Structure prediction request, 450 residues.
Amino acid sequence: MNIHTIILAAGKGTRMNTNLPKVMQPLGGQTLISHVIQTAKESSENITVIVGHQKNILKTHIANIDPNIKTADQDDQLGTAHAVKMASHLIKDDEKILILYGDVPLISSKTIEGLMNSEHECTLLTMQLNDPTGYGRVITNGQNLALKIIEQKDASDDELKIEEVFTGILLIDGSLLRPALEEIKNQNSANEYYLTDLVEILSGKGVKIKCIHANPAEVLGANNKHELHELELILRKMSAKKLLEQGITLIDKTRVDVRGKVVAGKDCSIDVNVILEGDVTLGNNVTIKSNVVLQDVLIGDNSIIESFSHLSSASVGSNCNIGPYARIREGTEIGDNAKIGNFVETKKTKLGDGAKANHLAYLGDANIGDKTNVGAGTITCNYDGINKHKTSIGEDSFIGTNSSLVAPVNIGKGAYVGAGSVITKDVPDNALAVGRGKQVIKEDWAKNKK
Ligand code: UD1
Ligand code: CA
Prediction:
């Protein structure tokens, strides 16, 4: 049967105390809704998100995640059943409807698959909590079939003690869901149309509603910043587990943040306070020291990224040494056996094999040949106030300290630039260029002054 996923995301999220739509709260470097959509896409192509509060901001965000995702408007947020009803014109009798909640972001595709394998017309994902506060309590017949869900606000003292709760996630035949939605009333303490009332309505008609128990770590919701923070801790733990399973050595699994996808070879190690964002690929035996940020980077075998370095949209070859305190910006391509030292910034720059920039430099829009040595304080003056220009330095060259290379400029192979030079003209291969004021000595000048 075809699966149609409906994600509820119209709520205001008053308890989150935020100006953003609740489902756009950040978790592991993405929004809550982005997590839910990414997971939903693994099991269904047909996805509708119910939007309401700040719907335009949310719709733009959803279109950025995937333009194929449909949205349905819920202009007044009258409850979760009302939200689903906003998509009822899109629900077909011959499809199964998977309901996901936009504020339950860590659900795994494996758990969703388990739900899909259920042979019942309606299956709920539930969890067992020692402290079930805030969740809808599931009343069962003792054999895993649900009879009713009672919301916290409407529950009696005895019902409040029930530890099996609804996760918000369920799978139901479209043919059952549509008519049942029409029967849900809002006579409860919140005056809302609760989707959870579906259970009593259907079980009353003899429908067997199966409960599948989920691991709470995957299905906790985030209604406020405390819960959101709990999810961040859970996500960090899950991501660290994946890194360890790949064979990466972690010095402290509670102090590494993965905000994207990491692929690594063998014998890599990651020290504390490292953030890995976007697509990060590490070769074999890569060492990432403490307090490093890697964002969409590729790092070759045996390279070491020293502490406090920040690398973004860049590639580093093998056997390199980067940092400490290096800033490797977008479009940087570093060859093999190269070295970038402290306080060196690179952008849109190629550094050849064995090239070095050991201290304090800005290398932007530059092409630096193999084995060239860039001295401390070298600046490629790539910007004239309007346009950017290129600097090219051939292989085996030597740029003396504190040189300004005013682009566009070409420095040949095997060339030397004297320390403190301002280079405005091209330097031929093997030449020495010196462009600085001549030193003047005035003997006994200081003595005569006194
Ligand atoms: C809901 C469930 C509760 C369950 C819990 C799991 C209901 C009535 N209760 O409670 O049984 O244990 O989730 O996390 O369903 N939303 C809309 N439109 C609305 C109202 C809500 O789209 O009119 C969306 C929200 O944006 C949110 C989701 O539905 O993503 C859940 O709403 P929320 O108010 O957070 O429900 P809970 O009180 O957490
Ligand atoms: Ca919620």
